[in-house]
Amino acid sequence: MDFLSCNLLLVSGKGGVGKTAIASALALAAASSGRRTLLAEYSRTDHPHPVFPCVTGYEPRQVFEHLYLARIDARQALKEYVRRKMPLPQLYERFLDSKTLTHFTDAAPGFEEIMSLGKLYDHVEEGGFDLVVFDGPSTGHMETLLRVPSVTTAAVHTGPVHLNALKIQTLLENPARTRVVGVTLAEEMAVREVVELLGFCREELNLRTAPVIVNKRLPQRFTRSEIENLKALKTPGHSGSASVPPRHDSNVILRRMIDVASMRYEFATLQNGYVESLKRSESLCIEIPRIVEHPFASVQQAEAIRAILAEQQVV
Hints:
By secondary structure, this protein is of the alpha/beta class.
């Protein structure tokens, strides 16, 4: 299951499932193995990366050995294309920065998607990277994004637009080079969306998918009989003296512990049901346990996920 041997990983999932953390861990795993890796994020503005200690800009920036960060921006890609392909590109600078162009590109169907994929293609083919991990948009937008090359080649039959869309589509459809990685939580809507995305990629777009990554999985620590036995424990009333606050009473503490254990059991059982439902559609799943996060330890979190993937012989 070493899908990191590909050249392009397209990572997506419902908002809030931890997609960026998983994409970062996959990029870190590839870089740790010595592969020159780019983690590319879908964004229009420079900003501090939520995991790595670096500002993500349009041009790739090295953050660790073998690991680089960049963002994918359609308007910046258009400017770059004009500078590379048009004679006297400085004549177009004012127009490229104008609100008129911004309004046009916002309204033009598929413009942002095809330019973004074109930049992603350049990173894969010309950037000198062994692997590009694309921290893509959420499931619905990802479907639109991946649909654009095939729609473009069907609608435009000649010229540079057709050729560029065909090159992108050929890269996406190459099973040895590109995989779509779905990320989900063990929750109903998240599972439904990732199953729909991956099914769409395989059946409609002829793309190869990787195992689904189930993030923040809560391990089941108790059996049903253990929980029932805990609930059956009789805790007599408060037996402490007036000088001992009720919150320190051992029976109160025991009852609270039983309640927490019961809630954990029910939540893990609920997650089990959603994972079983997922496995009926996606036979290969990778489960990442819930990791206690520190607000300033995002890199450590990504490293912990990378280590878990390595233990499961995924990377």
